[in-house]
Amino acid sequence: MTASVTEFTVDPWDPGYAAALSVEALAELGPTSAELVLDVERDAADWKPVDPPPGTVAPEALLIADGVRRIDARVWVHDPSSPMPIPGIAASYAAGIVECGPSGARLAALEVGRSLFSASPYTPEVKTTHATYRAERASGPSMDELSLALQRQVTQLEVDLAVKYRSLADDLLLVDGPLRGRTHLPRTVGYIKTHHTAYLPGPQSAVVSALAPGQRTPVFLMGTSWRRHAWYVRLPVRSSAPWAGIARCEAGADLSVDEVVRLADTLTLVLPSLAGVDYKDPRAPQNLVPIGGLEKLLRHRLGDPALLYRALRTAAHS
Question: Least crowded by CB within 10 Å, which of 104, 150, 246, 293?
Answer without folding.
Answer: 104
